[in-house]
Amino acid sequence: MQTAHKVAVLVGSLRKGSISRKIAQTLAVLASDRLKLEIVEIGDLPHYNPDLEESVPPAWAALRREVAESDAVLFVTPEYNRSVPGALKNAIDVGSRPYGKSAFAGKPAAIVSVSPGALAAFGANHHLRQSLVFLDMPVLQQPEAYIGGAGALFDASGHLTNDGTKEFLRKFIKSFEAWIDRIRA
Known about the structure:
The protein is an alpha/beta fold.
């Protein structure tokens, strides 16, 4: 029997009813029992400032610990101005410092970009991939996950109602599980 993997999930949108958070929650439900997806909250992180390393803010320490204790990281992000939201970039900066002690290093990763628009946050997805290369995170390449038209995929209770998207996400999370197994072997 293979062991379960703890997956830290970083959601780029801070909005309470965000589509990105709904997708992350859906993925947690669709994942097999071998993946334990846990959202790591990033909204209360002070902006990264090296001067604060002398007395690390508790929110920084918590993020670093949660990511370090995970087996993999899943990023679910919207697109702001053709890139990732500032809160997500800040979380990456906080978790990757101090230099040489990145909580992200070597962890298998995957990205899901989400947008109500037709471009499906393509720009954010690819900007994030650039950062993950520097963080030494092997990123799942296929299937790529760009979820466009996402505003129309959920009912009033926040449940995914589109069967095609649900099946795609099921295949995506299964592929991510296999990726984690491969990288961690």
